[in-house]
Amino acid sequence: MISEDMVLLDIVSEYPEAEAVFHGYDALVGKCILCSNLFDTVDKVAKEYGLNKVEMIGKLNKL
Q1: Is 29 domain-assigned?
Q2: ∠ CA 49-55-59 to the nearest 5 degrees?
Q3: Number of domains comprising the chain
Q4: For 7, phi and psi rounded to 5 degrees?
Q5: Which of 9, 27, 49, 51 has the fewest CB atoms found within 10 Å of its own CB?
Q6: Does pTM top 0.90 for this prediction?
C-alpha cells in the first residue's frame, strides 16, 4: 500500500506502472514530476504543486 511518506523513486521501483499516474500530473504542474522530484515524498510533491494528495494516493493504490 502506498502512503504519503513514501518516496517517488521507491514507488516506481516497486510499482513501475505508477509512472503513468505521476506523468498524468506533468501537464498540470508544467514539468515532469519524476524528473524533478524523484527523491521527494508524495506529501512533499503534493504540497509543492498544490495537488490533491488523497486523490493521488488513491490513484496509486488502484494499480
Answers
A1: yes
A2: 110
A3: 1
A4: -85, 140
A5: 27
A6: yes
